[in-house]
Write a structure and sequence with these properties.
Length: 531
């Protein structure tokens, strides 16, 4: 079995391990080569990483020991199921622990499993992908809420890629540890919790309320638990099956009414943990954290103006599975991709932008990408991001010529461009940043925000953009085409030019430093012909 932090998967059996704040959950699926899957196995174990992570911001040795042992068992289960690949990822508890990376190094060394740490906005984006796919893309405008142990993810949009991807530190376990010390909860504790939740929801609520949503999906165990409790209590409106939503996997998800969520939040706040544990639908862990979780659910629905929620069964794990399978299947770009390129060009026109230069550099960069696939091993989605980064790479000129590559990074990563997630903008910004001057380094703060997989993407895409920009150093589009030829342990880059390309030869050779460092091959630009 091959162990990956994120790589291609398709006609194979894929195991995905979700290391959450409270549980480790493994799902094994068969990919069919068309970007969809069938589940064949599942295993879950209680971890309770959040007990330590959110209290001390560190994972003690006994917790790390338990994590290593759990992942060893998960790997053994994946082997028993015949998995070809194992993809492991971690969320907020490990992400925020000061020793989280050290613990994951132990996991890698002792359990033999590398673990990818997902940023919060990636959690939101992948959860949205899962919900949109499960609804079979039938909702023109989709809003997704997910309350985990450490965070609340909110994602929304009208296409496959969300326009809103937010992760707020409003997880049920986190808030329980911070605010609730009494059993039953003290009214003052609950009041402080509500004030805190509303203070974080407020800025996002304006953006969410600005649109009407065709479907609102709740994807987390917190919401599904509230649905089960509503069914168990006679005086709480039960989730409606008649209004349910039929998904791609044949299951019909019930709809939970906002009134029921409000009533449950009030009722649960007056009960002890022992009393909650006797209600059908609760296990011990959920009984401990559901008061805070129900408060977040009720307040989010109120703040966002939501009347009902579809209790969708697919969430983060399924989103990650879908992305891996689709990357391997080579799913072709949709109409959304063409609209995204238009959105990028519209955005660049707000700035002092040499459109002819940037379009030409984008074309040269894509040509280099297509001719070096055996070197970089990247996919169609990466090619798309290279195109956009090339179009955007010089927007920093509008701030100043000096340090313009850094200004471009700042503008891109903080931009609001329709159809792009915060994560995509961060990757594109880093690619644009490295089109000139310094190479990627550990002390570059925006580069270190990325995990190792994304850093590799940035280095390789940045290497291609850097050479392409050198090919049009004078902004006169003298070099019309390039061809890549491997020879004598290096690469000849032959320039087809309409005039003597002296500056292009010099600049592209100067800009080959990142290419040579990343691919381990010297690059030799040569003039093929002069018109």
């Amino acid at each position: 079995m091959r162990l990956i932090q994120g790589g291609p998967a398709g006609d194979m059996r894929l195991a995905v391990l979700d290391i959450g704040s409270n549980t480790a959950h493994l799902v094994v699926v068969d990919g069919n080569g068309k970007g969809t899957f069938t589940e064949v196995g599942r295993k879950k174990e209680i971890l309770r990483l959040a007990d330590a992570a959110f209290a001390t911001m560190s994972l003690p040795d006994d917790t790390a020991d338990r994590l290593v042992s759990t992942i060893k068992r998960m790997r053994a289960f994946a082997d028993q199921q015949g998995a070809d690949q194992l993809l492991a990822f971690a969320t907020s508890a490990i992400r925020e622990a000061t020793n989280g990376l050290d613990v994951l190094a132990r996991v890698r060394d002792e359990a033999g499993v590398p673990v990818r740490v997902l940023p919060g906005f990636e959690e939101a984006r992948l959860t949205y992908l899962a919900a949109r796919t499960w609804t079979m893309f039938s909702a023109r405008r989709l809003l997704v809420l997910d309350i985990g142990g450490g965070s609340l993810e909110v994602a929304a949009g009208d296409e496959e890629r969300p326009q809103i991807t937010e992760s707020l530190p409003l997880g049920a376990t986190r808030l329980t540890r911070r605010f609730i010390t009494s059993d039953p909860p003290d009214p003052d504790e609950l009041a402080a919790l509500r004030v805190h939740v509303l203070s974080l929801l407020g800025p996002l609520a304006e953006r969410v309320r600005a649109s009407e949503w065709d479907v609102v999906c709740a994807t987390s165990k917190t919401f599904r638990t509230l649905g089960k409790v509503a069914e168990a209590l006679d005086d709480i409106p039960s989730p409606s099956a008649s209004l349910g939503f039929a998904g791609i996997d044949g299951r019909t998800a019930p709809v939970l009414d906002g009134e029921a969520v409000n009533l449950l939040a009030g009722r649960l706040a007056t009960t002890t943990e022992k009393q909650r544990g006797r209600i059908k639908g609760f296990n011990r862990l959920r009984a401990a954290n559901v008061v805070a979780g129900s408060q977040v659910a009720a307040l989010a629905m109120q703040a966002f103006g939501l009347k009902r929620l579809v209790l969708a069964p697919w969430a983060l794990r399924e989103g990650l599975i879908l992305e891996e399978l689709r990357a391997h299947a080579g799913t072709p770009p949709s109409a959304a991709d063409h609209r995204r390129r238009g959105a990028v060009i519209d955005f660049t026109r707000r700035y002092a932008w040499d459109e002819a230069h940037c379009r030409h550099v984008a074309g040269l960069a894509l040509s280099l990408f297509d001719q070096t696939t055996h070197l970089h091993g990247l996919d169609a989605g990466d090619r798309e991001l290279l195109d956009y980064a090339a179009l955007l790479h010089d927007v920093g000129w509008s701030v100043a010529q000096s340090g313009r590559h850094k200004h471009s990074l700042y503008i891109i990563r903080n931009a609001e461009i329709a159809g792009f997630s915060r994560h995509e903008l961060l990757v594109m910004g880093n690619v644009a940043r490295y089109h000139r001057r310094g190479l990627p380094a550990e002390h570059h703060s925006d580069y270190t925000l990325l995990d190792e997989r994304d850093r590799r993407r940035v280095r390789r895409l940045g290497a291609l953009l850097r050479v392409a920009d050198g090919l049009d150093q004078d902004h006169f589009q003298v070099v019309e085409a390039v061809s890549v030829h491997e020879r004598n342990g290096g690469i000849d880059l032959r320039l087809e030019a309409r005039d003597e390309p002296r500056l292009s030869l010099w600049a592209s050779e100067r800009n080959a430093d990142l290419f040579e460092a990343e691919f381990g091959l010297p690059l030799h630009p040569v003039a093929a012909s002069v018109a």
